[in-house]
Design goal:
The chain is α+β, with helices and mostly antiparallel strands. It contains 9 helices and 10 strands. Strands 1-2-3-5-4 form a 5-stranded antiparallel sheet. It has a 3-stranded antiparallel sheet with strand order 6-8-9. The structure holds adenosine-5'-triphosphate and magnesium ion (MG).
């Protein structure tokens, strides 16, 4: 792990200069898995390769060919064996959350970005590649879903989401699965005490806004309440595995309240399943009344 002071100064410099000098290695903030090892170099990002890298390379190549602008371009592997991606100008949402990131406009922009991503990826054939992070069987389909559209994995510009980054957990899934992953994190869907203060009491109205903006199909709306706790369980199985393996950044997060928050979220999702189902399945006019 990079020490906190210098890392933050470097991040600051990385954000301030349009393109830092070609050679300078500026660690980027955000993310747990590769904390301190995701580096900006000029207008590129260097990060460690992993078991999904080859598949993600093919995925990013497909997205580039379809002219989808909401993902980094894969540029190669550098002399140190790190994958090299295009740096996307903008900012990821990091704590403390800026006010603009908590607006309904930001939420809607994420829903629209997810929709554009799913449309762009729909013609990609995942079958020749290895996808180690399989999603549960009923939701494992042909559509390669992002599966980790966390706040720090979306780049914003002028208050709107413009790109998804960090496809390390991508694998063949289904739209409803990815919608569940994104809605849970961005609405957010969790115990009120863990919801940012300005958003308290608005979870179900914001969930409805998200699914309407995406244009979630009626059958997928029916499934969403069941999918949500499964996406949470899936994601936290990965976190638990990292903690058990001694991953320093995950361990610290887990110790500093992460485990308790994860348990609270899981139980909130289970106990609110009926309310969630009603919020997303109710005819539009009823939803407009309830959120107005
Ligand atoms: N292509 C990119 N363009 C702009 N910024 C990027 C890019 N890739 C990464 N970043 C920045 O670097 C941070 C960390 O990157 P990344 O998400 O790859 O790390 P990670 O540790 O693998 O994350 P996670 O814990 O979600 O797995 C991001 O939150 C973002 O701020
Ligand atoms: Mg990340």
């Amino acid at each position: 792990m990079v020490a906190r002071g210098p890392l933050f100064e470097n991040v600051q410099r990385a954000r301030m200069s349009a393109v830092p000098s070609d050679r300078a290695e500026l660690p980027l903030a955000g993310g747990y898995t590769n904390a301190g090892r995701v580096i900006r170099v000029g207008d590129t990002v260097r990060r460690p390769q992993n078991a999904t890298s080859e598949a993600v390379r093919a995925l990013l190549g497909h997205l580039e060919r379809t002219r989808f602008t909401g993902a980094p371009r894969f540029l190669g592997v550098d002399e140190r064996g790190r994958e090299t991606l295009s740096y996307i100008e903008g900012e990821a949402v990091l704590e403390p959350y800026p006010a603009w990131s908590l607006t309904d406009e930001a939420l809607v922009s994420v829903a629209l970005l997810m929709r554009r991503y799913h449309d762009a990826v729909s013609a990609f054939d995942p079958s020749p590649y290895a996808w180690p992070n399989a999603v549960p069987e009923p939701y494992r389909g042909e559509l390669v879903t992002h599966n980790d559209p966390n706040l720090d994995n979306v780049i914003f510009s002028a208050g709107g989401a413009i790109a998804l980054i960090d496809f390390d957990l991508a694998s063949p899934g289904s739209a409803v699965w990815d919608i569940g992953c994104a809605a849970r994190l961005w609405v957010p869907l969790r115990h009120e005490s863990d919801v940012p203060r300005p958003l308290r009491g608005r979870s179900l109205a914001r969930l409805r806004l998200f699914v309407d903006a995406y244009g979630v199909s009626p059958p997928d709306r029916e499934q969403l309440a069941d999918v949500l706790p499964l996406t949470h369980e899936w994601c936290y199985r990965i976190v638990r595995r990292a903690v058990a393996g001694g991953h320093e950044t995950f361990e610290r997060m887990w110790r500093d309240g992460g485990r308790i928050r994860a348990e609270r979220t899981q139980s909130w999702l289970m106990t609110h399943a009926d309310a969630i189902r009603a919020a997303v399945c109710r005819p539009a006019s009823g939803a407009a009344r309830s959120s107005g």
